[in-house]
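Action item from last week, closing it out:
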Amino acid sequence: MGYKSFEDMPVWQKAMELAVRIFNLTEHLPRKEDYSLTSQIRKSSLSVSGNIAEGFGRKHTKDKLNFYYHSRGSLSETKSHLIYGRRVGYFEKKDVEDLIDFIEEIWKELNSLINSLTQKSQP
């Protein structure tokens, strides 16, 4: 885990890709959703990579872990927004399934990162 920058972390790269994919998915949502679903899902998806980056920049393991946990929370929030968007008919089933699979992949990588840091911090 000797990355020089957060940008080198595969989990950050995937999280950034998720944010871009969510942005593209929401490009054609109705204008009435601009300050609702569009804003919420874009913020939560962008927060995943943002928190990974912020955690990377922290010196203490406890601080790093807090940001990685926040990142995981934002992943769950994004997934919830996707499910809502599908249920109200804004998103296609296949698009949501693909994105949820991708979210699960990022979730596993974040858990691996969290677990390795947790083990490292144990005496």
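Closing note: The chain has a mean pLDDT of 95.
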